[in-house]
């Protein structure tokens, strides 16, 4: 079975497995208070000009839940695109903390001052929650990304309105590769973001980067209370020790995008046009249901929507995707069409 279902189907990149073996008999302090964790934090800090606090968590949902609940008062809310991960794929994790998600309809998966401002202007009295945070994903759930200009404009708008800008970087690797943004750009134009390891070659792990000084105090308490403070915090840190050696993190993101480009060209040659522009590593296409059923016998992928005779499927490439995997899928698809 060849998987195009997601970008975290493999255990981890070989360099991570090598480091695990290297440190397998080394003893570390717990809860991220160890030499290795500090070393990795310094490595990431060196890529940024702004002083930040860095915390390692295991996955995206716990990172989103911890950060949003840590930042917001009980009567404050977070603004998100209606395709946002915190709304669509996190089982009410944010709502379970007592915070409302205010949804913005969108077509590109992205938010802008123009789409946010009507909410800011409307939620103005004590009978409604106070919008206090804007949540965005980069790359987005439809595979688009924010340009430097878009991110700058959005951040400065948020600053002018007293809103925190939080960037979900679960797929930051592919977004940086496609947009040519740097980690320093991301830090410059957000209050807080995270670097996704899980979907870019790591066994597990997200590196939460907090720039805004107001948000830094006591966040470890919030992480612990939410069950996110790993006793073996050095395991999560080790993922990023490998990823940030010799530009591996950025190379893996670029490879995933290049494989998506190759797959898209092959689909176009078969007369199949993706539903959204393919800018990173996610491709959405419509196929007849009988074709989808046949493909599922040999390939794993998500069925995004089922319209009866037609199904929308999502194909995701990753650091692990090989050209021969793509050729296999395209050959089978050609026969089925």
Automatic annotation (TrEMBL):
<dbReference type="Pfam" id="PF01212">
    <property type="entry name" value="Beta_elim_lyase"/>
</dbReference>
<dbReference type="InterPro" id="IPR015422">
    <property type="entry name" value="PyrdxlP-dep_Trfase_small"/>
</dbReference>
<protein>
    <submittedName>
        <fullName>Beta-eliminating lyase-related protein</fullName>
    </submittedName>
</protein>
<comment type="similarity">
    <text>Belongs to the threonine aldolase family.</text>
</comment>
<dbReference type="InterPro" id="IPR015421">
    <property type="entry name" value="PyrdxlP-dep_Trfase_major"/>
</dbReference>
<keyword id="KW-0663">Pyridoxal phosphate</keyword>
<dbReference type="InterPro" id="IPR015424">
    <property type="entry name" value="PyrdxlP-dep_Trfase"/>
</dbReference>
<dbReference type="GO" id="GO:0016829">
    <property type="term" value="F:lyase activity"/>
</dbReference>
<dbReference type="InterPro" id="IPR001597">
    <property type="entry name" value="ArAA_b-elim_lyase/Thr_aldolase"/>
</dbReference>
<feature type="domain" description="Aromatic amino acid beta-eliminating lyase/threonine aldolase">
    <location>
        <begin position="31"/>
        <end position="288"/>
    </location>
</feature>
<keyword id="KW-0456">Lyase</keyword>
């Amino acid at each position: 079975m060849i998987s195009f279902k997601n970008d975290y189907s493999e255990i981890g990149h070989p360099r991570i497995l090598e480091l695990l073996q290297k440190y397998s008999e080394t003893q570390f302090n717990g809860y991220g208070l160890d030499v290795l964790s500090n070393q990795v934090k310094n490595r990431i800090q060196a890529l940024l000009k702004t002083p930040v606090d860095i915390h390692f968590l295991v996955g995206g949902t716990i990172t989103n839940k911890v950060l949003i609940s840590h930042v917001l008062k009980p009567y404050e809310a977070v603004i998100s695109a209606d395709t946002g991960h915190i709304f669509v794929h996190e089982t009410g994790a944010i709502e379970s903390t007592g915070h409302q998600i205010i949804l913005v309809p969108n077509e590109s998966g992205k938010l802008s001052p123009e789409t946010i401002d009507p909410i800011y202007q409307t939620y103005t009295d004590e009978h409604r929650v106070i919008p206090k945070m804007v949540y965005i994903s980069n790359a987005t759930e439809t595979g688009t990304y924010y340009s430097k200009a878009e991110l700058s404009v959005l951040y400065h708008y948020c600053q002018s309105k007293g809103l925190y800008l939080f960037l979900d970087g679960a797929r930051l690797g592919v977004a940086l590769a496609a947009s040519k943004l740097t980690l320093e750009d991301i830090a410059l134009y957000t209050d807080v973001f995270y670097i996704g390891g899980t979907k870019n070659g790591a066994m597990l792990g997200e590196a939460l980067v907090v720039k805004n000084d107001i948000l830094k105090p006591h966040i470890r308490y919030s992480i612990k209370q939410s069950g996110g403070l790993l006793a073996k915090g050095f395991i999560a840190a080790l993922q990023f020790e490998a990823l940030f050696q010799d530009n591996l993190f950025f190379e893996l993101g670029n490879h995933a995008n290049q494989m998506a480009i190759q797959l898209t060209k092959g689909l176009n040659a078969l007369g199949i046009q993706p539903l959204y522009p393919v800018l990173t590593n996610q491709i959405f296409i419509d196929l007849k249901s009988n074709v989808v059923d046949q493909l599922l016998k040999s390939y794993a992928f998500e069925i995004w929507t089922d319209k009866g005779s037609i199904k929308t499927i999502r194909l995701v490439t990753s650091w692990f995707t090989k050209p021969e995997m793509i050729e296999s899928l395209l050959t089978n698809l050609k026969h089925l069409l």
